[in-house]
Specification:
The complex is a heterodimer of chains A (about 250) and B (about 650). Chain A is of the alpha+beta class. Helices cover about 35% and strands about 15% of the residues of chain A. The chains are: A alpha+beta (about 250), B alpha/beta (about 650). The complex binds flavin-adenine dinucleotide, iron/sulfur cluster (SF4) and FE2/S2 (inorganic) cluster.
């Protein structure tokens, strides 16, 4: 027979941003091979069948790449496992009879929409402020006319793997977005194509970050510890360096 | 109704150049007064929206996720093709064109495919300029790998997350235009109908998914970039939200659906593990560069794969297709896996899986090369494995991690277990050379259209097509259309056509909410998926397809009388949104079966058991079926077939052979 786990869930329920939320308790029977979100599918099926409202939560790819899933599980964004998103966390990481507490991301810049769903559009606004290289379609030179040392390409790639999930913000006691911003700044400042706008970019992005209500960084490192893509703390150092340099140049 | 593909006359290699140099233009002052709606922000949509905005049009873009960056394109893994010939291995625009036509089993248009091959090189340049960090060699040049169905290395990649990097490039271009005020972005919005005025597409009705309110949006043209419909099978490698709704609404408004039964079943996916399963996970085709596919020679062999000696393994792809080996096209590889499993040679708990084994190349290809580089003489097996592992990790690390996460097995040590799964839909909205549907002003780009892949898509070609459509084709072709529309002022959305469309959308939502039945939306979706997989999947036959049509009709009737949707139509209600999508799948599924039944031949991914060669390969019928099957919606469950005949002037058609 297939093994089953009995899980006691405490889930944050909040009908909309205007009303207060509270924890509700549920019991779910799940297979250890289920993903955490498939366990929530089972819960929701149960709720629907008994005439209750299912829990609203964000998800799409369920492959750890779109950055949409976002649950704080037993106090940790994306749960107990290192370098794993909520959707890639499997129930075999839990034991029969465990109580699991599930909450939405908590940050002023990410207001709750409903239950476990939050609004992260502030991240898009930061990118719109300068997280790009200004090149119109059709203006590009031959791709191999620009040689990029493999180490630089690798550094840029590593930073570019950020999925924009917001776990770093949720993990930070100040709700700082420095890891997210640092990742984009590092990617683009490392590549020769991105150097022309580096000063303008970093200042614009930091200003946007402040305007969106994210907090200051106090170097606790909680962000990198919880980042499902292993974005290293060094991107924050790069961000600080880029910012200081830009400011000194009068940007 | 006649279908004009509008392929320009003249030499194949000059068609696009001539089109571009003679196409009418819109002057900059007029562009500022013209509004374009782009639905979808995947590779096709983000590239189209940003490029059109750069040109000066006023763009409104829509997606149902919380951010344009999360479109399903983000999940593409293996890579993107381009005829750069950087490897000097004999690649050319013609070869990419030819491979694609042949790979598609001679069911796509020469003109479109050649254009795709031509612009493929511009895509790589554009992406690099945006800062997309493709894999590179130590000398600083771009790196390439091979994909199925070809004998050159033309695939550009960024580890196993190429789609992510390409989409983030297109997304950053889009966000730049949003920041500049040239694009207005509507995230968490779902398009629920196309609005036509005097037969021309003039806007959409969209639902704000957070407030539940319906909105009206005007556009001089509407561009649908809404992705594929593989989720009609319930289990697929698509993202959970991927759906057919936008394309289906367009279809109900008169746009034809072309070749809807052409579905790609991808050979290398993690097998189904249990009833809880909500989706299937792809293991990129790029893995077939270094992984060898096999099953035990002995039926029901339960030994640990590492204990099965070489001579007791059947590397069936290498055996059956020596010229292409493990890199045969997807349809061929999938059928071969099914054949072995059906014959009783499958592995794993369900016996519906085959092995994808990296050990040989890990040791012999990479391990030995690294040992030589490091000057290690006569390395032992453990050293070779350790050295090779690092190389494999760099190429496919994220895929191996994902495999381990899902199956709890370590693919560096034990062969992966894989099985085919639904992955991509070649069929889609019918479009002409200009990517315009048969409804004037309504365009379809990316996976949402049917255009370039015939009956089977080659790996790494969807990303190429999405970006070709968005960056390099639509800016010209839409300009041609809009140049004739410059006298049309933006229309107010209180026009009666908007009234009518909004009322109909609202009525349908009300009807869904009023059913108050007993079964969840999910349960209907699962049941539909099972019918589709069993009867319109990897192998099809007439009696099954007829059954499937009857079963889908019955299931649809049951849905409309017994579905239970909790909550209200006010505010955020994901169950209601899902119900609308499943309702559309319940209509599309029927059309797919109708199309599969009417195509009495096998070609590419469409395998009719009645039509096969003695070796079990797909047997085409070029005399009777060398056409695009375009279906016009007449009433619910009723369609009329229109045929667009395919003409091959440059390629000699032949039976596909990968032996
Ligand atoms: C796991 C996986 C791996 C893949 N790997 C590769 C690969 O390596 N190489 C390759 O070439 N191809 C690959 N493919 C295929 C390729 O990723 C897709 O075909 C391609 O990305 C589709 O892009 P698109 O822009 O057409 O649509 P999508 O990226 O699917 O985007 C659809 C967009 O439309 C929006 N949308 C849909 N409906 C509505 C609506 N009603 N209202 C508002 N918005 C709507 C969505 O929000 C989204 O923004 C892969 C596919 C999968 C599933
Ligand atoms: S830095 Fe890490 S935690 Fe933060 S958004 Fe990116 S992937 Fe998520
Ligand atoms: S659902 Fe896409 S990252 Fe989790």
């Amino acid at each position: 027979m297939e093994k089953v786990l009995n899980i006691n869930l405490k889930v944050w329920r909040q009908a909309n941003p205007e009303v207060a939320g509270r924890f509700e308790e549920y019991k779910v029977e799940t297979s250890p091979d289920s993903s955490f979100l498939e366990m929530f599918d089972v819960l929701n099926e149960q709720l629907i069948n008994s005439g209750q409202e299912p829990v609203a939560f964000d998800h799409d790819c369920r492959e750890g790449i779109c950055g949409m899933c976002s649950m704080v599980i037993n106090g940790r964004p994306h749960g107990p496992k290192k370098a794993v998103t909520t959707c890639q966390l499997h129930m075999r990481s839990f034991n029969d009879g465990d109580t699991v507490v599930v909450e939405p991301w908590r940050a002023d810049a990410f207001p709750v929409i409903k239950d476990l769903t939050v609004n992260r559009s502030s991240f898009d606004k930061i990118i719109a402020s300068g997280g790009y290289i200004s090149v119109n379609t059709g203006n590009a030179v031959d791709a191999n006319s620009m040689l990029i040392p493999k180490d630089d390409a690798d550094t840029a790639f590593e930073a570019a793997t950020c999925i924009g999930c917001g776990a770093c913000v949720s993990a930070c006691k100040n709700a700082s977005a420095m890891l997210f911003v640092g990742a984009k700044v590092t990617q683009l400042a490392t590549l020769p194509q991105g150097k022309a706008e580096r000063e303008k970019r970093v200042v614009a992005m930091v200003n946007a970050m402040d305007a969106e209500g994210f907090g200051a960084c106090s170097n606790t490192g909680a962000c990198a510890a919880e980042c499902p893509k292993g974005i290293p703390l060094s991107v924050i150092a790069t961000l600080n360096k880029e910012y200081t340099k830009a400011k000194m140049k009068g940007f | 109704m006649s279908l004009d593909s509008k392929i320009p006359k003249g030499d194949l290699a000059n068609k696009w150049t001539e089109y571009k140099s003679s196409v009418p233009l819109v002057n900059p002052a007029n562009k500022r007064n013209m509004e374009v709606i782009v639905v979808g922000t995947g590779l096709a949509g983000a590239s189209a929206a940003s490029t059109l905005a750069e040109l000066g049009y006023k763009v409104k873009a829509f997606c149902f996720q919380d951010s344009p960056r999360r479109a399903h394109s983000i999940a593409a893994q293996g890579g993107i093709n381009a005829a750069k010939n950087y490897q000097n291995d004999g690649d050319s625009t013609y070869r990419l064109f030819y491979d694609t036509i042949k790979g598609g089993d001679y069911r796509s248009r020469e003109g479109n495919v050649h254009r795709l091959a031509e612009v493929s090189t511009n895509i790589i340049d554009q992406c690099v300029a945006q800062g997309v960090p493709f894999a590179r060699e130590y000398g600083g040049t771009l790196s390439n790998r091979s994909f199925g169905g070809v004998q050159v290395q033309r695939t550009f990649y960024a580890a196993g997350q190429t789609g992510q990097q390409l989409l983030l490039g297109a997304y950053s271009a889009l966000e730049r235009q949003i920041g500049l005020g040239n694009v207005e972005m509507f995230a968490r919005h779902e398009m629920l109908d196309v609005v036509k005025i005097d037969g021309v597409a003039r806007g959409i009705i969209a639902k704000n998914l957070i407030t539940g309110e319906l909105e009206r949006h005007f556009g001089h043209a509407v561009v649908l970039c809404t992705g594929g419909y593989g989720n009609v099978f319930y289990l697929s490698t698509n993202a959970m939200g991927s759906n057919v709704t936008a394309a289906w609404k367009a279809h109900k408004q008169g746009a034809m659906m072309a070749n809807p039964c052409f579905t790609q079943i991808h050979p290398t996916c993690i097998p189904v593990s249990g009833a809880h399963q909500s989706k299937l996970t792809l293991m990129s085709e790029s893995l077939r560069n270094d992984g060898r596919i096999w099953v035990p020679k002995k039926e029901g062999d339960d030994r640990n794969p590492n204990d099965i000696p070489e001579d007791e393994r059947d590397y069936y792809l290498e055996r059956r297709y020596p010229a292409f080996g493990n890199l045969v096209p997807r349809d061929v590889a999938s059928r071969a896996a099914k054949e072995r499993c059906d014959a009783g040679f499958g592995v794993g708990p369900s016996k519906m899986a085959v092995y994808l084994d990296f050990k040989y190349n890990l040791m012999n290809k990479y391990g030995k090369a690294e040992a030589t580089k490091k000057g290690i003489a006569n390395p032992d097996e453990d050293t070779l494995i350790a050295l090779g592992k690092d190389v494999i990790k760099e190429k496919y690390g994220n895929l191996f991690d994902m495999y381990k996460q899902i199956t709890d097995e370590n693919p560096y040590e034990t062969p992966m277990r894989i099985y085919p799964a639904v992955h991509y839909t070649m069929g889609g909205l019918w479009v002409d050379y200009e990517l315009q549907t048969n409804v004037p002003g309504l365009y379809a780009l990316g996976e949402a259209n049917f255009s370039d892949h015939g009956a089977n898509r080659l790996g790494a070609s969807a990303l190429m097509q999405g970006l070709a459509d968005g960056y390099f084709v639509i800016p010209y072709t839409l300009g041609s259309y809009l140049s004739k529309d410059i006298r049309t002022a933006s229309m107010p959305t209180d026009h009666e056509s908007f009234d009518k469309a909004e009322k109909e959308v609202a009525a349908r939502i009300e009807k869904l909410m009023s059913i108050k039945g007993t079964k969840s939306v999910e349960s209907f979706h699962r049941r539909l998926g099972l019918i589709m997989w069993n009867k319109c999947g990897m192998a099809r036959n007439a009696p099954d397809l007829k059954d499937a049509i009857a079963e889908i009709k019955a299931l649809r009737a049951e849905f409309w009388s017994d579905v239970r949707i909790p909550g209200t139509d006010k505010g955020y209600n994901p169950e209601l949104d899902k119900a609308g999508r499943v309702a559309d799948f319940l209509e599309l599924g029927e059309l797919m079966c109708v199309d599969a039944l009417s195509r009495e031949e096998s070609c590419g991914g469409h395998f009719r058991e009645e039509f096969q060669t003695p070796e079990g390969e797909a047997k085409r019928d070029d005399d009777n079926y060398m056409y695009v099957a375009s279906w016009e919606s007449k009433a619910e469950g009723e369609w009329e077939l229109h045929k667009e005949n395919l003409e091959y002037e440059n390629v000699k058609i032949a039976q596909r052979s990968y032996k």
